[in-house]
Protein backbone atom coordinates (compact mmCIF):
# COMPACT_ATOMS: atom_id res chain seq x y z
CA UNK A 1 0.00 0.00 0.00
CA UNK A 2 1.37 3.39 -0.99
CA UNK A 3 1.40 6.17 1.59
CA UNK A 4 -1.44 8.71 1.46
CA UNK A 5 -0.79 12.34 0.60
CA UNK A 6 -1.71 14.84 -2.11
CA UNK A 7 -3.15 13.44 -5.35
CA UNK A 8 -4.10 15.19 -8.60
CA UNK A 9 -6.08 13.50 -11.34
CA UNK A 10 -5.02 15.05 -14.65
CA UNK A 11 -1.66 16.25 -15.96
CA UNK A 12 -2.90 19.42 -17.63
CA UNK A 13 -2.23 22.94 -16.34
CA UNK A 14 -4.63 22.66 -13.40
CA UNK A 15 -3.34 19.34 -12.08
CA UNK A 16 0.33 20.21 -12.51
CA UNK A 17 -0.10 23.69 -11.03
CA UNK A 18 -1.95 22.27 -8.03
CA UNK A 19 0.70 19.59 -7.39
CA UNK A 20 3.58 22.02 -7.84
CA UNK A 21 1.98 24.55 -5.49
CA UNK A 22 1.24 21.98 -2.79
CA UNK A 23 4.76 20.56 -3.01
CA UNK A 24 6.19 24.06 -2.51
CA UNK A 25 4.37 24.31 0.84
CA UNK A 26 4.83 20.71 2.00
CA UNK A 27 8.20 19.27 0.94
CA UNK A 28 7.81 15.90 2.71
CA UNK A 29 4.19 14.82 2.07
CA UNK A 30 3.80 12.39 -0.87
CA UNK A 31 2.55 14.15 -4.03
CA UNK A 32 1.22 12.19 -7.03
CA UNK A 33 -0.28 13.01 -10.41
CA UNK A 34 -2.34 10.36 -12.21
CA UNK A 35 -2.96 10.94 -15.91
CA UNK A 36 -4.54 8.92 -18.69
CA UNK A 37 -2.37 10.82 -21.18
CA UNK A 38 0.89 8.92 -21.79
CA UNK A 39 2.82 12.07 -22.70
CA UNK A 40 4.90 14.12 -20.30
CA UNK A 41 2.75 17.11 -19.21
CA UNK A 42 2.67 19.65 -22.03
CA UNK A 43 1.21 23.00 -23.05
CA UNK A 44 -1.93 22.66 -25.19
CA UNK A 45 -2.46 26.17 -26.67
CA UNK A 46 0.47 25.82 -29.15
CA UNK A 47 -1.04 22.62 -30.59
CA UNK A 48 -3.34 24.62 -32.87
CA UNK A 49 -0.80 27.42 -33.35
CA UNK A 50 3.01 27.27 -33.39
CA UNK A 51 3.32 23.48 -33.22
CA UNK A 52 0.83 22.80 -36.02
CA UNK A 53 2.18 25.33 -38.49
CA UNK A 54 5.70 23.94 -38.42
CA UNK A 55 7.27 25.20 -35.22
CA UNK A 56 9.45 22.80 -33.24
CA UNK A 57 8.80 24.34 -29.86
CA UNK A 58 9.31 22.76 -26.46
CA UNK A 59 5.83 21.94 -25.19
CA UNK A 60 6.87 20.31 -21.91
CA UNK A 61 5.59 22.01 -18.76
CA UNK A 62 8.52 20.46 -16.89
CA UNK A 63 11.13 17.85 -17.68
CA UNK A 64 10.88 14.32 -16.29
CA UNK A 65 13.90 15.20 -14.17
CA UNK A 66 12.08 18.19 -12.70
CA UNK A 67 9.29 15.98 -11.37
CA UNK A 68 11.85 13.59 -9.86
CA UNK A 69 13.85 16.39 -8.24
CA UNK A 70 10.73 17.86 -6.67
CA UNK A 71 9.49 14.53 -5.40
CA UNK A 72 6.32 14.49 -7.51
CA UNK A 73 5.36 10.97 -8.56
CA UNK A 74 4.11 11.29 -12.14
CA UNK A 75 2.06 8.25 -13.22
CA UNK A 76 1.22 8.48 -16.94
CA UNK A 77 -1.08 6.33 -19.04
CA UNK A 78 -3.13 5.51 -15.94
CA UNK A 79 -6.92 5.59 -16.14
CA UNK A 80 -8.80 6.28 -12.91
CA UNK A 81 -12.00 4.23 -12.65
CA UNK A 82 -13.42 5.35 -9.30
CA UNK A 83 -12.99 7.76 -6.41
CA UNK A 84 -14.02 6.32 -3.05
CA UNK A 85 -14.66 9.50 -1.06
CA UNK A 86 -15.48 7.58 2.14
CA UNK A 87 -12.22 5.62 2.15
CA UNK A 88 -10.38 8.60 0.58
CA UNK A 89 -8.75 6.57 -2.14
CA UNK A 90 -8.62 6.40 -5.93
CA UNK A 91 -8.91 3.12 -7.82
CA UNK A 92 -7.39 2.74 -11.29
CA UNK A 93 -8.48 0.54 -14.17
CA UNK A 94 -5.68 -1.88 -13.33
CA UNK A 95 -6.98 -2.25 -9.78
CA UNK A 96 -4.32 -0.15 -8.05
CA UNK A 97 -5.42 1.84 -4.98
CA UNK A 98 -4.00 5.27 -4.19
CA UNK A 99 -5.07 6.74 -0.84
CA UNK A 100 -5.16 10.51 -0.45
CA UNK A 101 -5.43 13.19 2.19
CA UNK A 102 -6.21 15.83 -0.41
CA UNK A 103 -7.47 15.20 -3.96
CA UNK A 104 -7.62 17.67 -6.86
CA UNK A 105 -9.87 16.60 -9.71
CA UNK A 106 -8.55 18.14 -12.95
CA UNK A 107 -9.25 15.72 -15.83
CA UNK A 108 -10.02 18.50 -18.33
CA UNK A 109 -12.35 17.99 -21.29
CA UNK A 110 -12.94 15.45 -24.02
CA UNK A 111 -13.43 16.26 -27.69
CA UNK A 112 -17.06 16.09 -28.83
CA UNK A 113 -17.23 13.35 -31.47
CA UNK A 114 -18.52 14.05 -34.97
CA UNK A 115 -21.70 11.99 -35.22
CA UNK A 116 -22.25 11.82 -38.97
CA UNK A 117 -21.63 8.94 -41.38
CA UNK A 118 -17.87 8.53 -41.67
CA UNK A 119 -17.33 10.88 -38.72
CA UNK A 120 -14.72 8.49 -37.30
CA UNK A 121 -12.43 9.52 -40.17
CA UNK A 122 -12.25 13.09 -38.85
CA UNK A 123 -9.29 13.83 -36.62
CA UNK A 124 -9.67 15.59 -33.26
CA UNK A 125 -7.20 18.17 -31.95
CA UNK A 126 -7.19 17.86 -28.20
CA UNK A 127 -4.00 16.04 -27.19
CA UNK A 128 -0.35 16.04 -28.20
CA UNK A 129 -0.95 12.74 -29.96
CA UNK A 130 -3.79 14.33 -31.94
CA UNK A 131 -1.55 17.24 -32.95
CA UNK A 132 1.26 14.95 -34.10
CA UNK A 133 -1.18 12.87 -36.17
CA UNK A 134 -2.71 15.97 -37.77
CA UNK A 135 0.69 17.48 -38.51
CA UNK A 136 1.90 14.27 -40.16
CA UNK A 137 -1.31 13.93 -42.20
CA UNK A 138 -1.04 17.54 -43.37
CA UNK A 139 2.49 16.90 -44.64
CA UNK A 140 1.11 14.61 -47.35
CA UNK A 141 -2.23 16.38 -47.97
CA UNK A 142 -3.29 18.71 -50.76
CA UNK A 143 -6.64 19.63 -49.20
CA UNK A 144 -8.22 19.84 -45.77
CA UNK A 145 -11.61 20.60 -44.26
CA UNK A 146 -11.96 21.97 -40.74
CA UNK A 147 -15.40 21.41 -39.26
CA UNK A 148 -16.28 24.13 -36.77
CA UNK A 149 -15.77 27.88 -36.60
CA UNK A 150 -14.62 28.23 -33.00
CA UNK A 151 -11.21 29.28 -31.73
CA UNK A 152 -9.43 25.98 -32.40
CA UNK A 153 -11.07 25.60 -35.80
CA UNK A 154 -10.08 29.09 -36.94
CA UNK A 155 -6.52 28.76 -35.63
CA UNK A 156 -6.01 25.33 -37.16
CA UNK A 157 -7.48 26.36 -40.52
CA UNK A 158 -5.09 29.29 -40.87
CA UNK A 159 -2.13 27.09 -39.83
CA UNK A 160 -3.00 24.35 -42.32
CA UNK A 161 -3.21 26.93 -45.09
CA UNK A 162 0.19 28.29 -44.05
CA UNK A 163 1.55 24.76 -44.55
CA UNK A 164 0.41 24.89 -48.18
CA UNK A 165 -2.75 22.81 -47.71
CA UNK A 166 -5.86 24.14 -49.50
CA UNK A 167 -8.14 24.47 -46.49
CA UNK A 168 -11.89 25.02 -46.12
CA UNK A 169 -13.52 25.77 -42.79
CA UNK A 170 -17.20 24.84 -42.46
CA UNK A 171 -19.09 27.04 -39.99
CA UNK A 172 -22.68 26.23 -38.92
CA UNK A 173 -23.37 29.87 -37.94
CA UNK A 174 -23.49 32.86 -40.28
CA UNK A 175 -19.91 33.85 -39.33
CA UNK A 176 -17.00 32.26 -37.40
CA UNK A 177 -16.90 32.85 -33.63
CA UNK A 178 -20.41 34.31 -33.71
CA UNK A 179 -21.54 32.86 -30.39
CA UNK A 180 -18.45 34.11 -28.59
CA UNK A 181 -17.85 37.54 -30.14
CA UNK A 182 -20.93 38.48 -32.18
CA UNK A 183 -21.68 38.97 -35.86
CA UNK A 184 -19.60 42.12 -36.43
CA UNK A 185 -16.42 40.54 -35.08
CA UNK A 186 -17.26 37.29 -36.83
CA UNK A 187 -17.38 39.04 -40.20
CA UNK A 188 -13.90 40.40 -39.59
CA UNK A 189 -12.64 36.99 -38.53
CA UNK A 190 -13.99 35.59 -41.81
CA UNK A 191 -11.97 38.26 -43.62
CA UNK A 192 -8.85 37.34 -41.60
CA UNK A 193 -9.27 33.73 -42.63
CA UNK A 194 -9.88 34.62 -46.27
CA UNK A 195 -6.81 36.87 -46.29
CA UNK A 196 -4.81 33.91 -44.93
CA UNK A 197 -6.03 31.80 -47.86
CA UNK A 198 -8.76 29.83 -46.07
CA UNK A 199 -12.05 29.19 -47.87
CA UNK A 200 -14.87 30.00 -45.43
CA UNK A 201 -18.22 28.25 -45.89
CA UNK A 202 -20.90 29.44 -43.48
CA UNK A 203 -24.48 28.61 -42.48
CA UNK A 204 -24.14 24.91 -43.26
CA UNK A 205 -22.99 21.65 -41.75
CA UNK A 206 -21.10 18.55 -42.79
CA UNK A 207 -23.44 15.57 -43.22
CA UNK A 208 -20.90 12.90 -44.17
CA UNK A 209 -17.15 12.34 -44.25
CA UNK A 210 -15.73 10.25 -47.07
CA UNK A 211 -12.19 9.07 -47.70
CA UNK A 212 -11.24 12.10 -49.82
CA UNK A 213 -14.18 14.51 -49.46
CA UNK A 214 -16.89 15.77 -47.16
CA UNK A 215 -20.54 16.27 -48.02
CA UNK A 216 -22.37 19.43 -46.94
CA UNK A 217 -26.03 19.80 -46.02
CA UNK A 218 -26.63 21.36 -49.45
CA UNK A 219 -25.40 18.19 -51.12
CA UNK A 220 -22.21 19.87 -52.34
CA UNK A 221 -18.89 18.14 -51.72
CA UNK A 222 -15.52 19.57 -50.74
CA UNK A 223 -12.17 17.85 -51.35
CA UNK A 224 -10.56 16.76 -48.09
CA UNK A 225 -7.45 14.62 -47.81
CA UNK A 226 -7.54 15.62 -44.14
CA UNK A 227 -10.62 16.35 -42.01
CA UNK A 228 -10.37 18.03 -38.62
CA UNK A 229 -13.37 17.91 -36.28
CA UNK A 230 -13.12 21.13 -34.27
CA UNK A 231 -16.58 20.50 -32.92
CA UNK A 232 -15.99 21.57 -29.34
CA UNK A 233 -15.24 19.84 -26.06
CA UNK A 234 -17.21 18.46 -23.14
CA UNK A 235 -15.97 18.62 -19.51
CA UNK A 236 -15.06 15.15 -18.26
CA UNK A 237 -17.13 14.89 -15.07
CA UNK A 238 -17.65 11.13 -15.10
CA UNK A 239 -15.54 10.57 -11.98
CA UNK A 240 -17.23 13.49 -10.22
CA UNK A 241 -20.71 12.17 -10.96
CA UNK A 242 -19.76 8.67 -9.83
CA UNK A 243 -18.30 10.03 -6.58
CA UNK A 244 -21.42 12.07 -5.82
CA UNK A 245 -19.85 15.55 -6.13
CA UNK A 246 -22.31 18.40 -6.67
CA UNK A 247 -22.53 19.41 -10.33
CA UNK A 248 -24.36 22.07 -12.30
CA UNK A 249 -24.59 22.70 -16.05
CA UNK A 250 -22.40 19.66 -16.66
CA UNK A 251 -19.57 20.91 -14.42
CA UNK A 252 -18.30 20.39 -10.88
CA UNK A 253 -19.44 23.11 -8.47
CA UNK A 254 -16.58 24.65 -6.47
CA UNK A 255 -16.29 27.71 -4.27
CA UNK A 256 -13.69 30.47 -4.56
CA UNK A 257 -11.17 28.19 -2.83
CA UNK A 258 -11.78 25.37 -5.38
CA UNK A 259 -13.46 23.20 -2.75
CA UNK A 260 -16.10 20.77 -4.00
CA UNK A 261 -19.10 19.58 -2.02
CA UNK A 262 -17.02 16.67 -0.64
CA UNK A 263 -14.47 17.09 2.13
CA UNK A 264 -10.81 17.12 1.02
CA UNK A 265 -11.75 17.01 -2.66
CA UNK A 266 -11.05 20.02 -4.86
CA UNK A 267 -11.50 20.61 -8.59
CA UNK A 268 -9.85 22.96 -11.08
CA UNK A 269 -9.83 23.73 -14.79
CA UNK A 270 -12.35 22.90 -17.49
CA UNK A 271 -14.50 20.67 -15.28
CA UNK A 272 -15.47 23.45 -12.86
CA UNK A 273 -18.06 26.11 -12.47
CA UNK A 274 -16.21 28.16 -9.86
CA UNK A 275 -17.14 31.15 -7.75
CA UNK A 276 -15.04 34.12 -8.84
CA UNK A 277 -14.81 36.87 -6.22
CA UNK A 278 -14.21 39.60 -8.82
CA UNK A 279 -17.35 38.63 -10.72
CA UNK A 280 -19.31 37.95 -7.55
CA UNK A 281 -20.82 34.78 -9.02
CA UNK A 282 -19.97 31.32 -10.39
CA UNK A 283 -18.03 31.48 -13.65
CA UNK A 284 -17.06 28.95 -16.30
CA UNK A 285 -13.44 29.42 -17.46
CA UNK A 286 -12.11 27.07 -20.12
CA UNK A 287 -8.68 28.40 -20.97
CA UNK A 288 -5.09 27.64 -20.09
CA UNK A 289 -4.21 30.53 -17.80
CA UNK A 290 -7.47 30.13 -15.88
CA UNK A 291 -6.71 26.45 -15.28
CA UNK A 292 -3.23 27.36 -14.01
CA UNK A 293 -4.69 29.92 -11.61
CA UNK A 294 -7.40 27.60 -10.36
CA UNK A 295 -4.84 24.83 -9.87
CA UNK A 296 -2.69 27.14 -7.81
CA UNK A 297 -5.68 28.10 -5.64
CA UNK A 298 -6.57 24.42 -5.17
CA UNK A 299 -2.98 23.58 -4.22
CA UNK A 300 -2.76 26.42 -1.72
CA UNK A 301 -6.15 25.57 -0.17
CA UNK A 302 -5.17 21.91 0.18
CA UNK A 303 -1.91 23.04 1.78
CA UNK A 304 -3.83 25.05 4.36
CA UNK A 305 -2.91 28.44 2.91
CA UNK A 306 -5.38 31.28 2.22
CA UNK A 307 -6.24 31.52 -1.47
CA UNK A 308 -9.18 32.65 -3.58
CA UNK A 309 -9.93 32.79 -7.30
CA UNK A 310 -10.34 36.44 -8.20
CA UNK A 311 -8.61 36.79 -11.57
CA UNK A 312 -10.53 37.93 -14.64
CA UNK A 313 -10.50 35.03 -17.13
CA UNK A 314 -8.85 35.57 -20.49
CA UNK A 315 -7.11 34.02 -23.47
CA UNK A 316 -5.15 34.84 -26.60
CA UNK A 317 -5.48 33.24 -30.02
CA UNK A 318 -3.92 33.76 -33.42
CA UNK A 319 -5.87 33.75 -36.69
CA UNK A 320 -3.93 34.46 -39.84
CA UNK A 321 -2.01 37.70 -39.43
CA UNK A 322 -3.91 38.75 -36.29
CA UNK A 323 -3.73 38.10 -32.56
CA UNK A 324 -6.97 38.25 -30.57
CA UNK A 325 -6.79 38.86 -26.81
CA UNK A 326 -9.94 38.55 -24.71
CA UNK A 327 -10.57 39.28 -21.04
CA UNK A 328 -13.97 38.87 -19.46
CA UNK A 329 -16.62 36.58 -18.15
CA UNK A 330 -17.57 34.93 -21.43
CA UNK A 331 -21.28 35.18 -20.62
CA UNK A 332 -24.04 37.05 -22.42
CA UNK A 333 -23.86 40.75 -23.26
CA UNK A 334 -26.33 43.45 -24.26
CA UNK A 335 -24.11 45.71 -26.36
CA UNK A 336 -20.79 45.43 -28.19
CA UNK A 337 -18.95 48.66 -29.03
CA UNK A 338 -16.36 48.17 -31.77
CA UNK A 339 -13.60 50.75 -32.31
CA UNK A 340 -11.24 50.65 -35.28
CA UNK A 341 -7.61 51.65 -34.99
CA UNK A 342 -4.42 51.24 -36.94
CA UNK A 343 -3.54 47.57 -37.32
CA UNK A 344 -6.70 46.22 -35.74
CA UNK A 345 -9.69 47.04 -33.57
CA UNK A 346 -11.08 46.65 -30.07
CA UNK A 347 -14.49 45.72 -28.68
CA UNK A 348 -16.06 46.43 -25.30
CA UNK A 349 -18.92 44.13 -24.26
CA UNK A 350 -21.48 45.37 -21.72
CA UNK A 351 -24.42 43.83 -19.86
CA UNK A 352 -26.73 45.95 -17.76
CA UNK A 353 -24.42 48.90 -18.31
CA UNK A 354 -21.40 47.07 -16.85
CA UNK A 355 -18.34 45.99 -18.81
CA UNK A 356 -18.30 42.18 -18.95
CA UNK A 357 -15.57 41.68 -21.53
CA UNK A 358 -13.00 43.30 -23.79
CA UNK A 359 -11.48 42.09 -27.04
CA UNK A 360 -8.27 43.51 -28.49
CA UNK A 361 -7.28 42.56 -32.05
CA UNK A 362 -3.89 43.48 -33.47
CA UNK A 363 -1.78 42.55 -36.45
CA UNK A 364 0.68 39.91 -35.31
CA UNK A 365 4.31 41.09 -35.08
CA UNK A 366 5.32 38.64 -37.78
CA UNK A 367 2.76 39.99 -40.27
UniProtKB/TrEMBL annotation:
UniProt-listed InterPro entries: FAD-oxidoreductase/Apoptosis, FAD/NAD-bd_sf, FAD/NAD-binding_dom
GO cellular component, one term: cytoplasm
Source species, domain of life: Bacteria
Pfam families reported for this sequence: Pyr_redox_2 (PF07992)
Entry cofactors: FAD
Coiled coil: none
SUPFAM superfamilies, sorted: FAD/NAD(P)-binding domain (SSF51905)
Domain called FAD/NAD(P)-binding: residue spans: 9-295
Keywords, in A-Z order: FAD, Flavoprotein, Oxidoreductase
Gene3D superfamilies noted in UniProt: FAD/NAD(P)-binding domain (3.50.50.60)
Molecular functions (GO terms): oxidoreductase activity, acting on NAD(P)H
Name of protein: FAD-dependent pyridine nucleotide-disulfide oxidoreductase
